[in-house]
Amino acid sequence: MQFIDLKTQYNRYRETIDQRISRVLEHGQYILGPEINELETALARYVGVKHAITVASGTVSLEIALRALGIGPGDEVITVPFTWISTAEVVMLVGARPVFVDIEPVTFNIDIDKIESAISPRTKAIIPVSLFGQMPDYDRINAIAAEHGLAVIEDGAQSFGASRNGRKSCGVTLIGSTSFFPAKPLGCYGDGGALFTNDDALADKFRAIRTHGGIRRHEHTLLGLNGRFDTLQAAVLLAKLEHFDAELEARKRVGARYTDRLRGLCAVPEIAPGNTHVYAQYTVRVPNRDQVAEKLRAAGIPTAVYYPKCLHQQPVFASLGYREGDFPEAEKAAREVLSLPMHAFLADADQDRVINALRAAVRQEPLDS
């Protein structure tokens, strides 16, 4: 059984993907070829913003966003400790300091009630993470940010395609960021990411920074980096984008089926009012997580843990001065979360295998009982 089945997806869309890749091989514009502009136009339309700027990865997208905002040494950026390291890593890479706020235990997203107490005169931005596939309440977050003159960057690496009150992820804040890593709901066959904004000046900065700080060759107005998205990967995404909404419907069905059959056995994902969920991961909570994961592995069921250690517990962030117990909800989640196989092509029979194996593992029963 596959945790994420990219092979079946490729076989379904093989003809379109191969045709798209072949066109790139024929025209030979491997860097910023015509597929880049075509994809950016399609992504901006999908999200409902003026500008989409593709970049080399989701990590690079966050770093470019911070650089475009002029955030650097002496500044602080508020985010969460329960996320992939990129979210806080980029803050330190530009010389600023990550300031962590605990998560809300049901959705795993930032606890909005705790944001204002973390704001200081040095705070310049907030990076909420739309974790596992659904968004926090960005109306409230944006209101807090506006009151204090802060930028909001949505880390939508796991939520592309999700919506809140009819508005798409990556289109509800000053800057939206996402990832096209292969395992994402919309993934390419390598690294990739994108930035989204309605701000013309910021969009120009994003484009410059991703290409060594200049729009025109040999004229560098900003300190930039090599953050360009690959034309071949853009071709793959263009082929997949045609099927994306259908895949989201399939993921919704699979997620709802899991929830219906697992509720009462373990803590299942709860969808916040007004939200849709793209289930980048279908993540449950079980107190004896490691033992349950081992029993599932023995039954041939692949699982994953996102994330076994919070960021404030990582050695690289020791200088921030946080201690065990500072973020109890995040720490508890790190001990309990377990992600199950989830993709648009998960057959009911395979899903039933997962459900039955999880039931046996949680209840400590023989699998054939």
Describe, in short, the structure shown.
The protein is an alpha/beta fold.
Explained architecture:
A seven-stranded mixed β-sheet has the order 1-9-8-5-4-2-3, sandwiched between helices. Helix 1 (6-27) crosses helix 8 (231-241), helix 3 crosses helix 7 (200-210) and helix 9 packs parallel to helix 12. The protein has 369 residues and is α/β, with parallel strands linked by helices. Helices cover 40% and strands 12% of the residues.
Tell me the fraction of residues in β-strands, as a range: 5-15%
**CATH class wording of the largest domain:** Alpha Beta
Number of domains: 2
Are there runs of 5+ residues with pLDDT below 50, and where?
none
Main attributes of the structure:
seven-stranded mixed sheet; Aspartate Aminotransferase, domain 2; alpha/beta; two-stranded antiparallel ribbon; 369 residues; globular; 2 domains; Aspartate Aminotransferase, domain 1
Protein topology:
Elements: H1 6-27, H2 34-47, E1 51-55, H3 58-68, E2 76-79, H4 86-93, E3 97-100, H5 115-118, E4 123-126, H6 138-148, E5 151-155, E6 163-164, E7 167-168, E8 175-179, E9 193-197, H7 200-210, H8 231-241, H9 244-262, E10 282-285, H10 289-298, H11 328-336, E11 337-340, H12 348-363
Parallel strand pairs: 2-3, 2-4, 4-5, 5-8
Antiparallel strand pairs: 1-9, 6-7, 8-9, 10-11
Helix pairs in contact: 1-8, 2-8, 3-4, 3-7, 9-12, 10-12
